[in-house]
Amino acid sequence: MNLNKPELEGTAHLLDELDKKLMVLLRDGRTLIASTNLRTWSYIRLSRGYMWVNEYGDIPRGVFIVRGENVVLLGEIDIEKEDDLPLTEVSVDDILDAQRKEQELKQEKQRLLSKALKERGILQRCKKTVFRIAKLIPPIREKIEAELETISKNFEDEVEERTKHLTYVTSLPENRLSKEEILNKLNQNLNLGEYDWKSGLVSGAVYYFSQDLIDIISEVYGKTSYTNPLHADLFPGLCKMEAEVVRIAASLFHGDEKACGTMTSGGTESILMVCKAYRDYAREVKGIKRPEMVVPTTVHSAFDKAAQYLKIRVRSVQLDPETCQVNIKAFRRAINCNTVMLVGSAPNFPYGTMDDISAISELGLRYNIPVHVDSCLGGFLTCFMEDAGYPVPLCDFRLPGVTSISADTHKYGFSSSVILYRHPKYRHHQYTVTTDWPGGVYGSPTVGGSRSGGNIAVCWATLLNFGREGYVTATRDIIHTTRYIEKGLRRMKGIFIFGQPATSVVAIGSNDFQVYRLSSALKELGWNLNVLQFPSGIHICITHMHTQPGVADRFLKDVRDSLGEILKDPSIPVEGKMAIYGVAQQLPDRSIVGDFTRRFLDSMYYIPKRNNK
Ligand SMILES: Cc1ncc(COP(=O)(O)O)c(C=O)c1O
């Protein structure tokens, strides 16, 4: 390595005390910015090489530029005396020595990190094993079973309480019921539930409610419920409508004429399908037999579901705690020769933040790995936001590395879901084809076989009924309301907002009190928000229901009033049902949380033992 005379002379100026950013003005007119907010020797990649920053404690002492084999000393800097920055030379030996030290330090850090991870892994595994073995010990097993039975009983009691004024139909009625009797029972069932979602007191769940639209889709479903798109020869019109839905969606996400896809029953099925497509593509084209996907920790749990169904290993990458976007450096490090797909959310469910899709797209191109953008939640907002006056970063096929997008027409598109691919070669691997079945050659594009064509027709009719203008207006109203709520919340003491909400989800946390207390307080006032964990938080997903006059102001007032009460004594722990979320996060054995959840799912099918008919 050669040390040149300092041809790149210049001066360094402290730009930002907090971030310890330096601006280096070179004599030849160029400017470099270097962050020195690092404890030890480190380098920062710049467009034209590397800049080395030598720090002792907090004081950066020298800045060097390494270009190829040449090292150029830029200056020795004492940030205490930023006006007087002498440019002095250092010897090659100094630099090499420093590099060696840095290397040693890096190795030491890596050794410590892998030791810590190993120990943590060992600790986790030990804990898991201890719990697994402990659960086999009869008295402990009995105790756990007894606890789970109590939990089941509590869930069942809730069902009993909720439905105590109704009877259950538990066998076929001997004689057919009349239309009136059926509609009567239907209404009784629909009226169950304590939350007033029609007044906009619920996060997400119902994205749009309009009697006009309901009238149209009721008629459309009525005309198409009996159709079965599995039989394309019998119902070619249904295939035509599905093709049109896919084409409309592909255009909205800026796909070219090769872009293609299928409709599915919902976001989870779209995700399941894209994971299958990429797993099978990678096996056939690249010979990958142990497939892995790299995803942010915030990616929807449907990816875990797909991974469990399809035997794909999930590499979850941590977020940048400030932005709540996936940490791109860590994301890159998680890629290996078994990676079959990279995933980013636009936006994610928990915080509503959008990952840096452009950076993920570049990684996809660099390593030749397909990139999926999960826009299930916000896709039918992001593609209208620019026209609605709220531009968002690129997150569709305009980014060359993006190879697929999932977007739920049943959320802001208000009916079912689509999975889109940049190229048909991926969609081919989504299909399931069996050629040797005695029942005939069988091919199906998605999970379902026979299914009602009604869902296709309803989605198609909804898209046509809104039209571009309808979606832009709905998007404008939803984003305007979200920004209004976000702004109001940011002004309140005792809470903070996670990252920068990209579309319609605003997530709230607190450093001052247990944030689930806010959730409990709002529940008392009729609100139903989503609960987040690791770290604790709550979120509201703004839908068209919240754009009704007065809803946003009522929400802000209720949050403000609740905070007023809570902050009188921030130390009070959360009580009641919400306390369970807090406790669940502390449990090292996640299998208990899993058992608990299974009991809840069981309770959905529970039928009270009383005078049922
Ligand atoms: C970002 C994201 N992806 C996927 C899904 C899964 O969609 P679905 O519930 O329709 O299966 C959701 C659902 O909320 C979501 O928010």
From TrEMBL:
<dbReference type="InterPro" id="IPR002129">
    <property type="entry name" value="PyrdxlP-dep_de-COase"/>
</dbReference>
<keyword id="KW-0663">Pyridoxal phosphate</keyword>
<dbReference type="InterPro" id="IPR050477">
    <property type="entry name" value="GrpII_AminoAcid_Decarb"/>
</dbReference>
<keyword id="KW-0456">Lyase</keyword>
<feature type="coiled-coil region">
    <location>
        <begin position="95"/>
        <end position="161"/>
    </location>
</feature>
<comment type="similarity">
    <text>Belongs to the group II decarboxylase family. Sphingosine-1-phosphate lyase subfamily.</text>
</comment>
<dbReference type="InterPro" id="IPR015421">
    <property type="entry name" value="PyrdxlP-dep_Trfase_major"/>
</dbReference>
<dbReference type="InterPro" id="IPR015422">
    <property type="entry name" value="PyrdxlP-dep_Trfase_small"/>
</dbReference>
<protein>
    <recommendedName>
        <fullName>sphinganine-1-phosphate aldolase</fullName>
        <ecNumber>4.1.2.27</ecNumber>
    </recommendedName>
</protein>
<keyword id="KW-0175">Coiled coil</keyword>
<dbReference type="Pfam" id="PF00282">
    <property type="entry name" value="Pyridoxal_deC"/>
</dbReference>
<dbReference type="InterPro" id="IPR015424">
    <property type="entry name" value="PyrdxlP-dep_Trfase"/>
</dbReference>
